[in-house]
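Marked as duplicate of an earlier ticket. Keeping the data here for the record.
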Amino acid sequence: MTLPPETEANILRYYHAEKWRMGTIAQQLGLSHGAVKRVLTQSGLPEARAPRPSKVDPYLPLIVETLKQFPRLTASRLYAMVYERGYRGGPDHFRYIVSLHRPRPSAEAFLRLRTLPGEQAQVDWGHFGKLDIGRAQRPLMAFVMVLSYSRRIFLRFFLDARMENFLRGHAAAFEAWGGVPRVLLYDNLKSAVLERMGNAIRFHPTLLAFAGHYRYQPRPVAVARGNEKGRVERAIRYVRDNFFAARKFSGLDDLNAQAEAWCLGPASARSCPEDRARSVDAVFSEERSCLLALPDNPFPTEERVAVKAGKTPYVRFDLNDYSIPHDRVQQTLALLATPTEVRIVAGAEVLARHARSYDKGAQVEDLAHIAALVAQKQAARQHRGTDRLALAAPQSQALLTQAGARGDNLGTLTAALLRLLERYGAAELDAAIGEALARGVPHPNAVRLALERRREERHLPPPLELHLPAALKARDRPVKPHDLDAYDHLTPTEADDEALV
């Protein structure tokens, strides 16, 4: 920046006549330190005074030699070294001195990387904060793939960066472009590279299977060589600044719909860096015919995990519980999940289908599963009551059979007979049921009338209903009589008397 002549004249006067320091001149005139120094240097006049000696001067040879051998040694460690040798200056000024003498790496030049149409695409993830869904907070990850020749961008947002979503992003990009690039460049992602020792690389086996299915070559970039995938890095920055900034959306589906419209609209209408005279969309139209053809069948990208059902008819997956048939509890099943659906299977049999939930702690239920369990529990209660009546009053089986033939509600009849059993006892109930059956009236009301008549004939008071503990209710259970033949051995016989004499 060229300064006005009067400003340059003031700088020279303040420095040489008034003996102001360069920092004071820059502060008072509102200029940068470099601008003031440039004016003084261009004037050709000698400086007013030589630099003052510093406490650190005796230690500069040690500092320079140490930094030459260890360029990345910290200033705090150097300060400790010179402090032990007698330096008593402040650490802040010493850190500034070290920054002046630290060796600077030489600038590295890079070749401009050019590719052929349809030859290469670059892939990476971008983190865009978190998304609240119910009680859960999910990471919002952007899958970005960009064609190196035309700079066509594909953008899709997911709620995690797992392998399944990584492959889904690939498949969606290939479908959107109508073809597959021959080479895909990856950063050293765990989804792509499991292990790397120098030039030896171990790819993720699932990614290799996916690449074989679509017939492209996966290729990781060299370590610390971000320029090799600069196109996708710039694409992610472009997404942050031109799409996501101040973007409003109602959910993940809405965000992805807006992302698709943006990729086909503003992102495709921008000028292509390789040919500024044409748009990205125009160059992509030329590149599309150079892409590899899509396979006839898509690669399966479902998540498959083994889940163990406990005592309740639910299995847990991704922070939520999904219902299963009640007869499948205490079993290990297979769960298959897509972004929208969860299926629980046992072999080839599909046990349950649910809409996938991204909430936390939600119970996703099929009403038929719960209804079947409730019906089973009700039937179990009814069977327990019927079994108890059969033991206490054997003729109750005949009464219930005849009542069922008439269409009566067996659950209601069983409950009524159990109440009469509690009030009158097992023997009286069985006798009263026999009288009701003899009259051809298989109903609890007929049994109750027979019980009341029998009580009045014996002049007994009305029974009082007592709520006894379960242990005391066992007194009405029938007891199988013991075989009395065993007691005959305890009674002496005539033969025994003669043997004693």
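See parent ticket for discussion. Residues 367-392 form the longest helix (26 residues).
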